[in-house]
Design a protein that fits this description.
about 200 residues, alpha/beta, 2 domains, 5-stranded mixed sheet, two-stranded parallel sheet, about 50% helix
């Protein structure tokens, strides 16, 4: 009787010990599994930074944004050549309250009715230079040249800055021809004589 009682007690203790051991193993295995599959945030941040730099470097200028205020409708074209990176020269919709000529993101000429009349009168007299635009483009050219010279002296590695005399013209489809002519003439006088007129593809 006592022997059977001791055997039952031993069996019960053994069962409890076995259950505790199995539970401990399960907890340890679960903990190791969680630690193994948890995300390494530092590595993920490095990866996202690399992706961001890659996307910025490979961003195509075919998806051009208008950096200045004002309504604007780009003319359509069936031409399939993408514009290359260049100084951006923008002419927003003439006749609107916010009509301007801008170099990159800086407004240099506000196309008020008075200014439009002045430029038109000058073009009729065969005087195509727009002084404010000419000054801004000369400053831009000087800045690019200075950067190129400083980089050459330092023998910098990687991408070099060169003054390629290129300007990218974004103009509203209703911009008067005489205004476009004056803008291109002024650009050429400021050493930007390689220009490209931007248009949207028909399928866009």
């Amino acid at each position: 009787m006592n022997t059977n009682s001791m055997t039952d007690r031993d069996l019960l203790e053994f069962t409890r010990w076995r259950d505790k051991r199995l539970a401990r193993r399960r907890r340890q295995h679960f903990s190791e599994s969680v630690n193994t599959h948890e995300l390494n945030l530092v590595a993920m941040m490095d990866m996202m930074t690399i992706l961001l730099v890659f996307l910025l470097k490979s961003y195509s200028v075919s998806a051009i944004s208008i950096p200045v205020g004002g309504e604007m409708r780009i003319p359509m074209s069936s031409h399939l050549i993408n514009p290359t990176e260049a100084v951006k020269l923008t002419i927003t919709k003439v006749g609107s309250a916010e009509a301007v000529i801008a170099v990159d993101e800086d407004t240099v000429v506000k196309l008020t009715p008075e200014m439009m009349g002045k430029i038109e009168g000058q073009t009729k007299a065969r005087k195509f230079l727009i002084p404010e635009l000419h000054k801004a483009l000369q400053a831009k050219a000087a800045k690019v040249k200075a950067m190129s010279q400083a980089q050459a002296k330092a023998n910098a590695q990687g991408e070099t800055v060169t003054f390629d005399r290129k300007v990218m013209v974004l103009a509203d489809k209703d911009t008067p021809y005489w205004l476009v002519t004056a803008v291109l003439y002024t650009s050429a006088e400021a050493e930007f004589d390689q220009y490209q007129l931007v248009a949207l593809r028909n399928q866009q």
